[in-house]
Amino acid sequence: MKKITLYTNPNSRGRIIRWLLEECGADYEVVPVPFGENGTKSADYLAVNPMGKLPAVKYGDAVITETAALITFLAELFPEKNLIPAVGTAERGEFYRWLMFAMHAEYAFMDKWHGIPETPERKRSIGYGSFDEVVATLTKFLHGKEYALGNHFTALDLYLSGLIAWGIMRAQVLDMDSELGAFMKRHAARPAFAKSQALDAELAKQMGLE
């Protein structure tokens, strides 16, 4: 396997990718990147990701960015961990469906957090409809389930849990005492999550972010 390098900041979506790498049992190197001119906007980092966004992963000489792409790529890279349904199955299609849905849900949470009005014109122009529709749809999908797909943990559970945690603790637009909160808490009890959190806490200390 080629060398894996994670470019991250503890205050970024890199936390989700670190969690996934720990679930995979991956051997990886971490490059801490501060925000701003000396980090994400520096010439060195823009050579990695011209958008100046985190996280990014180098796999050998190849660069992969965008969290959903990284989730899929890394889950496929470690097939023995069974973190993504097999290619060509209906379950794989469902995995893609709800992963893409979660990307739109993030924008719904962000808009709600910033108080952007949901006018009829805006609802027609955005990809997610409305905040209430997103929450209701996701809640219905996860209702009564331990796992989003099938009978075991996948990278979709990880991505959804990270999104829900952000919606509860950062954006404060979701309720911890909801079905979504309960789903997130179950998966946050996994050992790989605890390890990734501890590693990011140590990295935050090293970067002077505390």
UniProtKB/TrEMBL annotation:
Its EC number is 2.5.1.18. Residues 1-82 form the GST N-terminal domain. Keywords: Transferase. PROSITE patterns: GST_CTER (PS50405), GST_NTER (PS50404). It holds the Pfam family GST_N. It is an enzyme of class 2 (transferase). One of its GO terms (molecular function) is glutathione transferase activity. Residues 88-207 form the GST C-terminal domain. PANTHER family: GLUTATHIONE S-TRANSFERASE FAMILY PROTEIN, GLUTATHIONE S-TRANSFERASE-RELATED. This is Glutathione S-transferase, N-terminal domain protein.
